[in-house]
Amino acid sequence: MSDTACNGWEGYGTRASAYATWKVRLELFDDEGWIRDHFPSRPSLSKLAAHLEYEAGEYVDMMLPPYDSALFVRGWLDVFLDDVSWEEIAENMLLDWPSDNDGSVS
User: Fold this and answer.
1) What gap in Å lies between CA 81 and CA 71, rounded to an integer?
2) Does residue 101 lie in a domain region?
């Protein structure tokens, strides 16, 4: 693990990106049950990463009040979210994704 990693997350190779990736995974996407409701079968890495980024933006919009002062905070949050490696989070989530052909009988 490099000295830029944060709790095992690499991000885009900087400490800030690794921290943002770890923090978002921990606080927004810790419970994977909801994402499997959106994807009944295993999605591609890029499709899952794009969906995670979209959901994070929606969550931030929902949490901020609809006032002009919230735009100031939204700017900071956008910069933070730009540092997130969505692909790394998606890859981590896909590691434990059940196989579409897991041998079970329906």
Assistant:
1) 15
2) no
Total domains in the fold of the chain: 1
Tokens describing residue 82: 């730009």
| Domain of residue 21, residue span | 15-95
Which of helix, strand or coil describes residue 1? Answer: coil
| Distance of alpha carbon 56 from alpha carbon 41, whole angstroms | 21
Judge whether 47 lies within some domain.
yes
Is the entire prediction scored with pTM above 0.85? no
Q: Does residue 50 lie in a domain region?
A: yes
In a domain, residue 84? The reply is: yes
- Residue-level pLDDT, tens digit, the chain, 106 residues: 568 899 899 999 999 999 999 999 999 998 777 788 888 889 999 999 999 999 999 998 888 877 777 788 888 899 999 999 999 999 999 998 877 555 443 3
